[in-house]
# Entry
Amino acid sequence: MTPRMTDHMKRAKAGFEPMFAVEAAIQRSTLEPLLVHLVKLRASQINGCAFCIQMHVAEALKDGETPLRLHMLSGWRESALYSERERAALSWTEALTRLSDTGAPDADWAPVEATFDTDERAWLTLSIGAINLWNRVQAGLRVPHATTLPPVQADAA
# Structure
C-alpha cells in the first residue's frame, strides 16, 4: 500500500492539535482505559484502518489487555469474554461506526444508558466519534502501520 501523504499532520497541524487534545481528554475521563482500547479497536476493525488496528492492539497489550480478548473482539457477540458494560460499549461503537446503516437505534442506546453514567455516556460517544475520524484520516491517506507489537506479547497476539 502506497501512502497518499506522509506529512498530513504537519500540513494540517492546526487541525490535528485539537484532535490530540481530545485524545488526552478521553484518557483523563472516567472510562476504563481497556474499555476505550476495545472501542477504538472495534471501530478500526469495522473501518479497515490497519494503522489504527495495529496501534490500538499494541497499546491495549501494553496496558494489560489479554491477547485472547483482542483476538476474539470481532466475534464479541458470541464470546463470554466481555462484560455487560463492554458489550454495551461495543454495540454502541458498531451502531455509531455504521451510522448510515443503523441510525443509532434505541436498542443499542438502552444498554449504554443502563451501564454508564451520564458523563460516561458522553465520553463514550465522543471516543467513538474520535476514532472514526482518525480512521478516516489514516485509512484515507493510506498511512502505513507499524509491523511490531510490544516484545512481551508479540508472540501471543
Notes: The chain is about 65% helix and 0% strand.
